[in-house]
Amino acid sequence: xxxxxxxxxxxxxxxxxxxxxxxxxxxxxxxxxxxxxxxxxxxxxxxxxxxxxxxxxxxxxxxxxxxxxxxxxxxxxxxxxxxxxxxxxxxxxxxxxxxxxxxxxxxxxxxxxxxxxxxxxxxxxxxxxxxxxxxxxxxxxxxxxxxxxxxxxxxxxxxxxxxxxxxxxxxxxxxxxxxxxxxxxxxxxxxxxxxxxxxxxxxxxxxxxxxxxxxxxxxxxxxxxxxxxxxxxxxxxxxxxxxxxxxxxxxxxxxxxxxxxxxxxxxxxxxxxxxxxxxxxxxxxxxxxxxxxxxxxxxxxxxxxxxxxxxxxxxxxxxxxxxxxxxxxxxxxxxxxxxxxxxxxxxxxxxxxxxxxxxxxxxxxxxxxxxxxxxxxxxxxxxxxxxxxxxxxxxxxxxxxxxxxxxxxxxxxxxxxxxxxxxxxxxxxxxxxxxxxxxxxxxxxxxxxxxxxxxxxxxxxxxxxxxxxxxxxxxxxxxxxxxxxxxxxxxxxxxxxxxxxxxxxxxxxxxxxxxxxxxxxxxxxxxxxxxxxxxxxxxxxxxxxxxxxxxxxxxxxxxxxxxxxxxxxxxxxxxxxxxxxxxxxxxxxxxxxxxxxxxxxxxxxxxxxxxxxxxxxxxxxxxxxxxxxxxxxxxxxxxxxxxxxxxxxxxxxxxxxxxxxxxxxxxxxxxxxxxxxxxxxxxxxxxxxxxxxxxxxxxxxxxxxxxxxxxxxxxxxxxxxxxxxxxxxxxxxxxxxxxxx
Length: 741
Prior knowledge:
By secondary structure, this protein is α+β, with helices and mostly antiparallel strands. Helices cover 23% and strands 19% of the residues.
């Protein structure tokens, strides 16, 4: 749509307004006659009407002659839609007019068209036409006043089109028109259309067709001075009848062609801008070429801010204002209560959804693993002074009860030759790298020429066993020969077999193993211990003895007093402690340089447990050295067995701890039997609760076993089952929903 705004004449005397249908000025006398006759046609005067949008407006050809006077209409104007907006304070009268009773006036409202309409066919200048038109307009105004004095002017509805403007009126297609006129202004005369011909026979402006499919006009209020209205002379300020769009309006012919020389529009009126919109059905018309001689458009005075039409984007509506416009219901006033309630309505579903999601997530989270917590004393100390043991008179010795602690030591702890005691490390490395279960024979080891050759060294005082090159012995038999017969040739055979024929590589593995076990004062130089530079301490050998005794196959071998080889030959155990006084091993080692050495082990039944005692004695040089070391070791072992005792520290049914479900739930634990600690005077033992690696269940009935109470460590560790006192259940729903971690 296009917006047309015509400002009024401030003085109220010279202003002209466009006709309601946009065809041209109404206050003019009509179309001018021929220049020769000089007659001025009587202006077509009609009541202002409130026009409604035409339902069907059909453009007509503008070149038809409508009267005998030879006047021809102006060019066709296609105005499919014209919009006039009228204020609400004016009265609205809807007048229906027939096809022949339209207001007089030309169709052109475009200021450019009005300026060019007064040019005659012979090339007469516009200034001359404007001068002539001014005189004719004054005469027409006097004639209209005279006519009003005589009785008024006939209404536009009753006037013949030929009388209003001759046969040259231009057809107007106004399918839809909306008028808005301020109620406080008096409608002045319409601007006279400048057309005409000095010769009186040519159409004014016929060469400039105007395509205006859509137009919108807004009429400015006029001053209170007298001004001729659409129907003729009248007083300024008189309200004219509301104009509404006519329905079924037929194109009317202009009441009179503009006379040559009629006055042009004032600068004030030309400040408005009319932008026609092309109809989709209208033919394309090339824009008119403006003559260089034509004076440029002169803008009028600045309009007040209230009268300006601005096409700007509206500011964004607030949600409530937009809702009020859509529902046609005003938004309620903002109050703190309404704001709070609105926020509650908006956020409540979101909060509820968040709560549901969190609740589901909490319920789906896995439960923490239950733990056993000890409430009884974590340690127990036996009363009395530390016992006195039978220590040797020379060398060094260390004695421990595995899992309970050390019973003490004797002598200076320094590295000394250990002789065949080194074979314990050889057996440990072989079993570590080649695991063997009790009762199994294990892989078969081929005997090489070196092993057969080394077997003949028995004549030089080495302990050996007979083997032949090419035969095979099992790993189990090789370990028997190593630990019971103390065969040096088999020790070196095992080293070569394990390390690809290199004894040196095997010795490196022995030293690496000693380092892993924390044997800081031990150095191995050969697999048999024959060399004097293979040294260690009693404390280091006790560490090794406790570790190697973890292998069941090893324990089964070293506790034997003798064994029979594959050839049926029997071999006696050089460790004379076995099998007396509960001795279960481990290995002797004697040389002239090293003296008598023994790594021994014994067992003791105490408090329903079997305690393992491990000791080492080195540097016994009293001859016979092997008998001396065995005798001294026996005395030490027996004294240790005698000091061991058992004390009850927990009675059956006592509460020793609880099950923690990880979410604050606790279920008490009780001992299923009496708990006794094994030790000696002055010894402190530790208590602990353990699940044995099986895990604590989430649910259990009263009395079900869920763990074990332990006292001490190692093979002699005291173990008593514990059970739940009440029912062990999973955390309830509320606890699971409110859990944090």
